[in-house]
Design a protein that fits this description.
- The chain is low in regular secondary structure.
- 0% of the residues lie in helices and 12% in strands.
- The chain is globular, with a radius of gyration of 10 Å.
Amino acid sequence: MQKMECPCGYVYDPEEGDIEHGIEPGTSFEDLPEDWVCPVCGAEKENFYPAD
């Protein structure tokens, strides 16, 4: 599964999820709720890009 990076530098790693916000490990970026935002800066999903 693809890691996705926010312009602020936060990287969403599907293997880790976002436990603090109820996202279980193993959740792909595409399967995140539409209202999920970057836990660091609040950017919306559309602002993320594939991480290298």
